[in-house]
Structure to design on (641 residues):
């Protein structure tokens, strides 16, 4: 605490601007959590590929060329081709874009749902808390996959459905974590102090509660991205994911990847490795973020 | 009892507050009456669980959902605060009555700047724009003697030491020039030297503004010396009130006398062979209070009549004590326990 106060004296500008704070945070991440920083870097590469997939992909995702069917990786096709002669690298890149869209939207919806339920439940307490939490309990007694399969079977596969269902699923589960954080902040002295100066509930929520559970939300959002990518791949594997011809990693793994595993192992290896690396990277990065942003850790160094 | 000007600024009459607990209803405050004049400093002294903080929170109607105010009146400027709706109470909190909490380390929001927090009551109650609120915040920080006040508005609480944070809390409490400031153990978490500074500052600033100050403390030794009048609480009741001077010179209630005797002194015994005096026994369990006087089981003067609850009676002008035992002049401190 004292040390932090002292070290901030000679360089007050470093912490004053948003860019300076970001830079300071990245430096801290690299120094204290090198593995997390590496995860973050891989995550950034994934985002870059996802955002610029259309420019980076050397071929169209559904561009078939029967003359180069099931070709091993070469200069023209760095990750080989599939049974229809489509370029695997291009499909991986477009798959990254789809994974990114689905995971960001679903994790975003999920975090929002967690925030709303968690804040209502944790701050209002009493009967509201009881009713909401019993609802969450009831929802969580069903295994995720069972719920997913049932709902997707009813509403049919498609990107919007998957985004909403996954968002809801993770949102409701995550509301517990947010609720816990809100209860802690609610019991803190500064919330009482805010009440004692005549602030209304909405004001207290916006100024005092939400900013102080922000670290929890950031970590929740980040780790959920990894989880959503994995679950979407699982759904695609079961044939309930994003419908063809959109090339998602899960579908590539379960479709052509499994069928032609012996003729063209790269068909399964490429999406499988991408999934593993990206999800692992995001999880490591999320863990590092949690360690660095956890309010209980703040000021303790 | 009241000043020549008429009704006191705050007049708490027969206040009772109880809490639902696992062990049943616990009466934390039981028929407490207090009054504070404008510009006066009242110390409420008592140990943990004596009901002093609950009394303070009740004045602002901020006791949590497990507790409820069962009876009594809290007249502030002639209006009964217990009859107001929540919106009216919000308008009063921070504007006409302000509160300072005991933990400066955690009473400030770690993610907001000092300027934002000190300026917040002004924004809430005066509807000022941020520029004005910041100017006022800087002025307030200057008044609580924070050096380079305007330069520190953009600092975060972790840049401030404990004493400075408590100064910032005082600035925040003073923001809207409240008529009454309630300070709940304002210096408990601070170093002894800083304690004295903060108390002197608080006293000076409230006197300047002619605000009343209620100082809640367990420390009869230091804190209560800054008060004009002292009310001693035990087990949810006021057991003795008197001017600070009279109370220190001659405590009437055996509990007050016991508290006084347990203040360590430097001049008493240089050899250090004498043990510090203590009050025997434990603070009472509020869920199972004895019938009659709650202090009787620990009281050196207890006798048969203590089985009936003693009323808070005026023993001489301006002095009230709730005790059946009437010590001879010279006080309950007197060595020989003398019964009627």
């Amino acid at each position: 605490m004292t040390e932090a106060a002292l070290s901030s004296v000679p360089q007050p500008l470093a912490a004053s601007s948003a860019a300076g704070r970001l830079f300071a945070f990245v430096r801290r991440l690299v120094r204290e959590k090198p593995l997390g920083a590496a995860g973050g870097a891989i995550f950034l590469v994934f985002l870059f590929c996802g955002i610029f997939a259309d420019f980076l992909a050397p071929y169209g995702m559904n561009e078939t060329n029967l003359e180069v069917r099931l070709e091993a990786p070469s200069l023209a096709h760095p990750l080989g081709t599939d049974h229809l002669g489509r370029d695997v690298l291009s499909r991986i890149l477009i798959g990254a874009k789809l994974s990114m869209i689905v995971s960001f939207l679903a994790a975003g919806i999920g975090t929002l749902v967690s925030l709303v339920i968690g804040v209502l439940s944790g701050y209002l307490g009493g009967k509201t808390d009881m009713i909401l939490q019993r609802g969450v309990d009831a929802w969580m007694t069903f295994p995720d996959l069972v719920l997913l399969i049932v709902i997707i079977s009813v509403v049919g596969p498609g990107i919007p459905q998957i985004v909403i269902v996954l968002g809801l699923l993770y949102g409701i589960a995550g509301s517990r974590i947010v609720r816990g954080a809100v209860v802690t902040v609610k019991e803190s002295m500064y919330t009482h102090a805010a009440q004692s100066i005549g602030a209304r509930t909405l004001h207290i929520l916006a100024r005092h509660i939400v900013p102080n559970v922000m670290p929890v939300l950031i970590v929740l959002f980040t780790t959920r991205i990894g989880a959503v990518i994995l679950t979407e791949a699982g759904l695609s594997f079961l044939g309930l994911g994003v419908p063809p011809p959109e090339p998602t990693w899960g579908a590539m793994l379960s479709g052509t990847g499994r069928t032609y595993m012996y003729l063209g192992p790269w068909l399964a290896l490429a999406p499988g490795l991408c999934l593993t690396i990206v999800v692992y990277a995001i999880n490591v990065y999320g863990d590092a973020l949690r360690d660095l942003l956890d309010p209980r850790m703040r000021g303790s160094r | 009892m009241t000043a020549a000007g008429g009704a006191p600024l705050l007049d708490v009459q027969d206040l009772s507050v109880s809490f639902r607990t696992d062990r049943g209803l616990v009466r934390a405050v039981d028929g407490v009456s207090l009054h504070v004049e404008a510009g006066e400093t009242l110390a409420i002294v008592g140990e943990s669980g004596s009901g002093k903080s609950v009394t303070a929170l009740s004045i602002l109607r901020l006791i949590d959902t497990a507790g409820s105010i069962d009876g009594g009146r809290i007249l502030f400027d002639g209006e009964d605060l217990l009859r107001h709706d929540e919106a009216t109470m919000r308008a009063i909190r921070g504007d006409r009555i302000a509160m300072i909490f005991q933990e400066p380390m955690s009473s400030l929001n770690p993610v907001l700047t000092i300027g934002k927090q000190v300026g917040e009551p002004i924004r809430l109650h005066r509807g000022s724009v941020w520029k004005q609120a910041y100017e006022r915040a800087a002025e307030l920080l200057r008044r609580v003697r924070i050096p380079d006040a305007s330069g520190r508005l953009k600092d975060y609480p972790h840049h401030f030491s404990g004493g400075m944070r408590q100064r910032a809390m005082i600035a925040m409490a003073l923001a809207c020039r409240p008529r009454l400031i309630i300070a709940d153990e304002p210096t408990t978490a601070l170093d002894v030297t800083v304690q004295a500074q903060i108390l002197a500052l608080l006293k000076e600033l409230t006197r300047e503004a002619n605000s009343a100050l209620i100082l809640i403390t367990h420390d009869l030794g230091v804190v209560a010396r800054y008060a004009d009048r002292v009310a001693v609480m035990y087990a949810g009741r006021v057991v003795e009130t008197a001017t600070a001077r009279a109370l220190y010179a001659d405590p009437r209630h055996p509990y007050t006398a016991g508290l006084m005797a347990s203040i360590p002194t430097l001049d008493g015994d240089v050899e250090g062979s004498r043990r510090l005096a203590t009050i025997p026994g434990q603070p009472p369990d509020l869920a199972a209070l004895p019938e009659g006087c709650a202090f009787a089981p620990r009281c050196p003067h207890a006798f048969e009549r203590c089985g009936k609850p003693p009323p808070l009676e005026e023993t001489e002008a301006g002095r009230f004590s709730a005790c059946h035992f009437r010590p001879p002049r010279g006080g309950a401190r007197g060595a020989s326990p003398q019964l009627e």
User: Anything to note?
Assistant: The interface with chain B takes residues 1, 4-5, 8, 16, 125-126, 188-190, 192-200, 203, 207-208, 211-212, 214, 295, 298-299 of chain A (CB under 8 Å). The domain at 51-58+79-293 of chain A is CATH 1.10.3720.10 (MetI-like fold). Chain A is about 75% helix and 0% strand. Residues 1-15 of chain A have pLDDT under 50 and may be disordered.
